[in-house]
């Protein structure tokens, strides 16, 4: 068998392996409950009114990238065919030191492409970070090692979260802190941190934002679907970063009000002080840390 035949077989084998890996990866996304589809570029299904802004930017960028890729691949193949070596081609073609029109072309065109990408990215980011509208509900999300506190500002109640205990058993999500949001209402998140940099991320929102100590970040969303969604910290923040999880429940207004009343009945009234750091607040996660370190 010739070396060229071996090379072709190798390329086909590598391509098949790549296809299998891609299929397995997409299957894994579905397995953990992340709903994707070709219509939104295989992003998680957005559940806010702002999600289409991210989807449109994502899909538009991929279309532009594929168009450039097809053009480049086509030019490469055309050059391989049109300028392949033929019988009797014993002399080198004319060697040119430069080609001004061509150099201008491949300098200006990429600059225009980058400029267009920057424009649409900045436009989307400006819309997503716009907090000029009056929110229906304001929630102060406080990141801490390694959980979350939620201050429901308008209702004057709070919920203090505990670090997730991941022991491989089912039902761990039921013990996570749960953030309640009313469907169809504009919610403003005011993000603060007690210690280090965290990142507030709900994949179904198609948005995330850093939670920095000494800095207040804000963004608004309008949930348009009810359901329970997963949230997590997206910034490496220490030894138990992977256990900094929470739930998000988007519910009707009646259920939201009922949960606020439930927090009041539990005595969780008032707002947790953002000025308190982990040394001044009783560390309710310490027993979990001790258990984990004891097992190790």
Structural class: alpha+beta
Rg to the nearest angstrom? 27 Å
Widest sheet: strand ordering: 3-2-1-5-8
The helix/strand series, from N terminus to C terminus, equals: HHHEEEEEEEEEEHH
Please count the helical segments: 5
> What is the CATH superfamily of the largest domain?
Cupredoxins -  blue copper proteins
Low-confidence stretches: 19-33, 281-289
Q: Beta-sheet strand percentage?
A: 15-25%
For the report, how would you describe the main beta sheet?
A: 5 strands, mixed
Mean pLDDT, rounded to whole units? 82
Transmembrane segments: 57-83, 104-121
Keywords: Copper, Electron transport, Membrane, Metal-binding, Respiratory chain, Translocase, Transmembrane, Transmembrane helix, Transport
Enzyme class: translocase
Protein name: cytochrome-c oxidase
What does this entry look like structurally?
- It is a single chain.
- With 296 residues, this protein is an alpha+beta fold.
- It has two domains: 36-83 and 93-130, Helix Hairpins (Orthogonal Bundle), CATH 1.10.287.90; 137-294, Cupredoxins -  blue copper proteins (Immunoglobulin-like).
- It is built from five helices and ten strands, in the order H-H-H-E-E-E-E-E-E-E-E-E-E-H-H.
- The protein has helices at 3-31, 51-82, 100-128, 253-265, 286-295; strands at 137-144, 147-152, 157-160, 178-182, 187-193, 198-202, 207-211, 217-221, 227-233, 245-251.
- The strands form two sheets. Strands 3-2-1-5-8 form a five-stranded mixed sheet. It has a five-stranded mixed sheet with strand order 4-10-9-6-7.
- Strand 2 (147-152) and strand 3 form a beta hairpin.
- The longest helix has 32 residues, at 51-82.
- The radius of gyration is 27 Å and the shape is elongated.
- It starts with a helix and ends with a helix.
- The model is unreliable at 19-33 and 281-289 (pLDDT under 50).
- It is a multi-pass membrane protein.
- Residues 134-262 form the Cytochrome oxidase subunit II copper A binding domain.
